[in-house]
Structure prediction request, 242 residues.
Amino acid sequence: MEILDALAAEEDQLAALLAGLTQEQWGADSLCAGWSVADVVLHLAQCEEAVIATIRGTPVDWGGLGDTVGAAMESAVSAERSGSGAAVFERWEPARGQALTVLRAADPARRVAWVTNTLRPATLATTRLAEHWAHALDIAEPLGLPYPDTQRLRHILWLAHATLPYAYSAAGSTAPSVRVEAVAPNGPAWVLGPDDADVMLSGPAGDLARIAARRLDPGDSAVRISGAAAAEVLVRIRTYAI
Prediction:
């Protein structure tokens, strides 16, 4: 399955970044408020372990860890924080490999519980790609390390576009139709949505993906918008559970 190969490649890119970190860098602040680089990778390891559990039929009770998704994730990290970069790297590596294995073996049509929703394995894999990419930025940028955009952004933009109805529903409203025209890092543009959509978003794929991941303010991007609801779409669009 293409998305699983893309997820593996994204994780490999992150692994190469992490393998070169010093202990000082592991302890440095990430872009996630209150989390060190080691905390971010601990969080990724915990989530990959949760993927394994949910595919095997024993999903994590995130609600029991906090009143919101963010609170639950913070509680999980706080409970197991060690500060050791080597330890969290050694925990994440086998977890991400095992998660890929169970995702490849999963029934592609069977929805599984994930955080606030149920997802098919391919969509769950896409969320994992999006989260690994976003957290890689949280690690690389404050350390001044490169983390180049790739063609895998196509999967992240698909997720952001496909989940707009969910994001609007969570806010108690209905999503407009949206067309996205994203300039790929290399190659032709990617187009999502109908020609006659209510809202048009266009610009660099990296900017669009970063806005959806809440890693870039739309006002600081090269994204162009049109349509009465366009500004609201940029507020609602997400690549993660809310």
In short: The chain has ten helices and six strands.
